[in-house]
Amino acid sequence: MPMSFAGRFAGRSAVVTGGASGIGLAVAQRIVEEGGRVCVWDRDSTQIEQAKAVIADLHGVTVDVADPEAVAQAARQTIDALGAVDILVTSAAITGPNMTTWDYSVEDWRRVIDININGVFFCNKALVPHMLERNYGRIVNIASIAGKEGNPNASAYSTSKAAVIGLTKSLGKELAKTKVTVNCVTPAAVRTAIFQQMSQQHIDFMLSKIPMARFGEVEEVAALISWIASEECSFTTAAVFDVSGGRATY
Ligand code: NAD
């Protein structure tokens, strides 16, 4: 059982996109364990129901984060249900196909960009005004080490994650004089279902680049996010946190 900070999120409410699976699910579980209320936003309603079965009092909204109207509606619905949203963690993303850049279809490229960049923008945009009104907010966007380094045969994904870093730094600076912080985490390979979309060659390639010579666990990412999303992390915004077993280029 990992160390937990019971009561850290007492009285706080969070939205976790992509929270029905993998890292998002671990973050949702951790925030609930630490006393917060959580609503997961995910496009997979079956997985939302499975998550609700294991996490007590979990709320869920089925939504495609690439649809701006649906995201705005999810925000209204969640604020009505929870009374407020103090924390936003954006975990929803897809990897897209593993292939050379020039072999990508335009549709595949656009889908990755739509979900991984536009989806993060839509969710941040939908909740920032509410956080400003309440004079408190913690936004943690999940990017990737791929966004810093660039991964061969994953250029749409790498491009999208570089954009999430840029969005986080820009929005963090725009909000720096408010009580709303915006940070992002950059995991390296973490063992989740997203691996099912990757070729074995790509998985071996990722592993070869991690100095700790192992994959990360979802709980290890959730532990870092729990701190960044807490009141305690108050003098940090527009920052990028590696959770990568030592893999980093800058
Ligand atoms: P995952 O596939 O287990 O979970 C992603 C979740 O997002 C799923 O529940 C899925 O239904 C949801 N989702 C996908 N598209 C959506 C959409 N359009 N609208 C709403 N929900 C949508 O993935 P994961 O491994 O937990 O990854 C979580 C985050 O961490 C992602 O942003 C990913 O890029 C990032 N990341 C993962 C790793 C890794 O090795 N697993 C490494 C670096 C960064």
Automatic annotation (TrEMBL):
PROSITE patterns: ADH_SHORT (PS00061). InterPro entries: NAD(P)-bd_dom_sf (IPR036291), Sc_DH/Rdtase_CS (IPR020904), SDR_fam (IPR002347). GO terms for molecular function: oxidoreductase activity, acting on the CH-OH group of donors, NAD or NADP as acceptor. This is 3-oxoacyl-(Acyl carrier protein) reductase. Belongs to the short-chain dehydrogenases/reductases (SDR) family. It comes from Mesorhizobium prunaredense. One of its GO terms (biological process) is fatty acid elongation. Pfam families: adh_short (PF00106). It comes from the Bacteria.
